[in-house]
Fold:
Amino acid sequence: MGGFIETMPAMFFGGSSAITFLHYDIDLPHLFHTHFGGRKHIILFDNKWKKRLYCLPNTTYALEDYDVANPDFEKFPALMGVEGYEVFLEHGDTLFMPTGMWHWMRYIDGSFSLTLRAWDQSISRKMAGVWSLFMHGAVDSVLKVIFKGSYAKWREKLAFKIAEKELKKGKPRN
Ligand SMILES: [Fe+2]
Structure:
């Protein structure tokens, strides 16, 4: 780690059953996620599984219409065999998520969390974060504004194609 980004803490609140969609953080920080006041169910995936998770092209998030905790493998066959981590946080627990880690969260009880972000120590990873912000933030936003619905449909179709192609390759390397 290259030290905390103290000016950018983030607090999250959720009612019972509220969900945070499956994504990884766009600027590639390391994350310390501390939970308070209830329980939270979290599922994590290494970034090597990105394509198999139906990541939408030009974004850092997956298609939103599958249930990460209980996926429909017939509709989303590339999810079969994907290996992740399952975590249940209780009051006062802190979860460390390294840069690029995918996360999906469901509040079991109404509760809240605090995330502290940290840069990676290496210049190359910092540059990758800046590049990701540009590509997945600025470029994607511009394409959305210009092409609207047709862009959304195109990237959904492409996410399926990429996931199916990746499935044929087998388990990704680290
Ligand atoms: Fe996040």
User: Anything to note?
Assistant: Strands lie at 10-14, 19-23, 30-36, 40-45, 85-89, 94-97, 102-107, 111-118. The mean pLDDT is 94. The pocket of fe (ii) ion is lined by residues 23, 25, 103 (CB under 6 Å).
